[in-house]
Amino acid sequence: MSVFAVLATLVGVVGAGWGSQFTSAPFNIVMATIVFVFALSFLGVWEIPIPGFGGSGDTSGREGLGAAFAKGILTTILATPCTGPLLVPAMSWAVSQSIGVTYLVLMSVGLGMAFPYLLIGAFPKLIGFLPKPGMWMETFKQVMGFVLLGTVIYPMYVLSGVDPDIVVPTLLFLFSLWAAFWWIGRVPLTQPRARRMMAWGQAAAFGGLLGLVSFGWFYHPDDGFWRPYSGDVLAQHLEDKQTVLIDFTADW
Questions:
Q1: 54: alpha, beta or left? (left if phi > 0; alpha if psi -120 to 50)
Q2: Of 5, 136, 233, 245, whose Cβ has the fewest other Cβ atoms within 10 Å?
Q3: Burial class (CB within 10 angstroms; exposed 0-12, middle 13-18, buried 19+) of 154
Q4: Domain ranges of the chain
Q5: Is the distance from CB of 43 to CB of 145 less than 8 angstroms?
Q6: pTM to 2 decimals?
Q7: Which residues contact 160 (CB under 8 A, 6 or more apart)?
Q8: What are residue 59's phi and psi, to 5 degrees?
């Protein structure tokens, strides 16, 4: 509900639509990074050290409202690729209405996404209809890891349309994160806190360094030298006695 309240404000004040954030290269990089890192956790490369988030044992009393709220925000954001195409008609209509109608529509969407959680919270006995825990959960988690890896393709595909020159640096950065979180995973959660924090520090330093290398050395954005072919522009350059270099190739 909070995410859609912010979205309604952006729609009403700024004019941004649901899914328009994917036109931003930094947003796509962040989304690809989050999904990729979570996929690594699901595949067993590292363990998420957050009580109650995929861990073992009863941690409901230690999680706190802040962690639950943060997970709700993350769940809503990660659902953007799935909900975006379905919400385009509703969004297109809502942005043309008054600000009150826009808030009403988007908050209704947020309520719909939250409804399953509210239903189980109001009637805890519904948990009994959920599958019982077992070894199948580990297999299911790993399968979901591969699904998340496949999901990374979506922000990378959108990124290729937003800024093709940044795709390769992003892939290199993701590969460096793979190595960083593998290093974190080598230190189990049962180890002393100091040793785990050291592993996190070393991994953060490595990931940060490779991030600077990836986006500093391997990112060469378009400097504006090239422009799409136009017969009129070509004729104008030739009329001005300017040298013109035409680059053509096959798009495959």
A1: left
A2: 245
A3: middle
A4: 1-161
A5: yes
A6: 0.59
A7: 167
A8: -115, 15
